[in-house]
Amino acid sequence: MRLAQAGAVMINWTALASELMGDWTRPNAAEVGEIYQQHSNWAGL
After folding, report:
1. pLDDT number for residue 44
2. Cβ atoms of residues 13 and 38 within 8 Å
3. How buried is residue 9: exposed, middle or buried, by Cβ count under 10 Å (0-12/13-18/19+)?
4. Which pLDDT score is estimated for 42?
5. pTM above 0.70, yes or no
6. Span 1-45, pLDDT tens digits
7. How far apart are the two ends of the chain, measured CA to CA in Å?
8. CA distance 45 to 41
9. Contact between residue 4 and residue 10 where contact means Cβ atoms under 8 Å apart
10. Residues 13 and 35 sit within 8 Å (Cβ to Cβ)
């Protein structure tokens, strides 16, 4: 949790998920992207 260690406060699940994801080269990136699209306000942008 790099941001939290720097003093940032996570405000929603997308911020936490982004921190846990790290980067989009992980093998499960497509599945995480689908979850974002299904459950976020900015899906499809």
Report:
1. 52
2. no
3. exposed
4. 61
5. no
6. 677 788 888 678 777 778 778 888 989 889 988 888 888 776 555
7. 26
8. 9
9. yes
10. no
Residues 6+ apart with CB under 8 A from 36: 14, 17, 43
Pairwise CA distance, residues 12 & 3, whole Å? 13
Domain residues of the chain, as ranges? Answer: 2-39
Can you tell me the distance from the alpha carbon of 28 to that of 10, in angstroms, rounded to the nearest whole number? 22
pLDDT of the residue at 37: 83
In whole angstroms, what is the distance from residue 26 CA to residue 43 CA? 20
